[in-house]
Amino acid sequence: MKLPKIMKVPKHKSFGYNPRYYDPKKEELERRVEQGKKKGGTDTEAIKSRIRTDLRSSRNADPKLRSRLIRKSNKRIFMIIVLLVILSLIMINVYLPQIL
After folding, report:
1. Closest listed residue to residue 56, CA positions, set 32, 34, 79
2. Cα 96 from Cα 99, distance rounded (Å)
């Protein structure tokens, strides 16, 4: 025989969540195929869109190229900073004693 409970414990809520698989490459391929089936030859918006997606995909294609370009840019910025510091030191040494 069961004794009556003073407090009721609520049951947990269950949700009907079904995760979906997302494949960005497949989505991109389907979108490009759909654009290809459209009137893609003469429509300027379709041409702009195709160029835009080609540029995006080429930018993300080679991660080594991206890191190499970033490294090259960082070296250039460093050299500019060093050059500006050297020029400012020369200016201070040449013109500051004349002011005082």
Report:
1. 32
2. 5
Q: How far is CA 22 from CA 25, 51, 86, in A?
A: 9, 24, 54
C-alpha R_g of the chain: 32
Domain parsing of the chain, residue ranges: 26-61, 63-100
Taking only the tens place, the pLDDT of each residue in 22-39 is: 888 888 888 877 777 765
Cα dihedral 20, 24, 28, 33 sign:
negative
Question: What are the distances in angstroms from CA 93 to CA 45, 81, 84, 98, 100?
Answer: 59, 18, 14, 9, 12
**Cα dihedral: 32, 36, 42, 45 (round 10):** -20
pTM over 0.70: no
